[in-house]
Specification:
This protein is an alpha+beta fold. Helices cover 23% and strands 22% of the residues. The protein has three helices and eight strands. Strand 5 and strand 6 form a beta hairpin. The longest helix has 13 residues. It is globular, with a radius of gyration of 15 Å.
Length: 160
Amino acid sequence: MNFFRHRPAGLAVLALLITAVGCSSADDTVSAAVPSPGAKVSKLCKDLDKALPSRIDGQDRRDPTPASALTAGWGNPAIILRCGVERPARMSDPEADGVEVDGVGWLLEKQGDGSFRFTTTLRKAYVEVTIPKSRTGDGTAPLVDLAKPVGKAIPAGIAD
């Protein structure tokens, strides 16, 4: 995994996706698909939920709908955490980008809409964090706030 390489997205695709996701509902509620891991991973994710901070990158916690111990959110536009996600296919790519933040490794995937998706590596459960395009200027700052609770609640190892 290359920790320093970045690939730019095509401008046409980026403009189309920004247009498609730029609209929000009047009540500003955010939804997130709830993962459906097995019992062992679910327990780890519930432990993580209890350890998560009330603020990330200066933003208050605002969990997405439907409510679940497997998802969390902060701010508006929301930084979204989902615990117990499937292993990303990109994780098998030796050319994939990654970062390490305070002892927690993350696969880095820039999305077509300019947002970033980070997924933990070498942990007993996969934890995914999506940072919206408008919040990417702070780089990996949200991951700094998440590294300690992830490192504490999700043991190092290989997810089943």
